[in-house]
Specification:
The protein has 385 residues and is mainly beta. The chain is built from three helices and 17 strands.
Length: 385
Amino acid sequence: MPIYAINAMTPVTYTNTKPNQTSPYVGTNYSARSQDWWDPNLRNPYTMNWDLSTQYQLSRTYVLEFLYQGSAGVGLIEDWNINVFPVDYGANNPALRAAAYAAPQNYLPFPNFGAINYRSNFGHSTYHSGTVRLERRFAQGLIFQTFFTLSKAIDEQDTDNSGSGVAPVTDRRLEKARAGFDRPLRFFDSITYEFPIGKGRRFLNRGGWLDAIIGGWQTAWDISWESGAPLTFSFANSPYEYYPTSIAAQRPNCLDPKLFGNWLNQGPARFNELTVNPIIDINQFSYPAPFTAGTCGRDNVGGPPIFAMDSSGQKVLKFKERFNLTLRVDIHSVQKMLFDRFNFTAPTTVVDFKNPTTFAKLTAGPSTSLWGGTPIINLDIILRF
């Protein structure tokens, strides 16, 4: 089998090639001698998109829409290490299995190489969603748009160059699962309202100093709730023996893990990780038998959902014809201020029965710049002329 260099379609040339076409290698750490092999028949991947929608006008100001959207990625370029042996290698031969465990490099298909990353059109992804949207057109100072989406995204890996999994060579279908960015449920509402107070409006229409203070304000709100990103579990400190992770990803066995119903209850001392309540029951997991792949699939448990609210308010003061002054305040993550609701990033997902107090603990949240992150208030004063 020829080995190809990255970004090239000709075989790798090594110096001092021996008559048997092998290349000398100084040292014994062949596992560090990795190589990239590009499929010579590689073709461009493509995506297909389709949608169907219907709208119904409920009244002069309200419109209801039903929307279906779908897409598929075909022939996606993925990268898989082909220099591995199956995870059940030597299953019926304990002596062979022990020898492969002691020196796995000697039992690879190409023992003089480490990873041989084969790039080809392995990948396929799908996305399907159904959305119900309600829109209110501008009337009486109010406009809003709200929608609810039910969706599912599936793939074998989320990026082009990170192929791995339980058994990437023998059966890549074992990695077919929810995409890492899959958020099956999402609700979003955007509202803008002009208060009926001030010059040209229903109340305080005559202007004056009171209008200058409380008149002419408008506010906008964005409200969102969405499912958490899926979690993939690993394990540590198992009493059993397994082939190295270069052969296959090591995942635990699992029954039916899911978030606790009261997962937001962090306990009385949420700043001490040891006493923080876990959000998933560790007893839903177990160590796999020696030299076997665990039953936990990729991205099989939904993580903490995100609830976020942003708001803003602004008022424009006009001076004669050439000048106007805009006062604006923006509040990020209002849900923390109104409901004392934090959002959290993914918890620890390493199943370790020697250190069970570290499992499924929430220890961090999104940064200020991210949707649902740390609350922040911005005040802007803008003069235009």
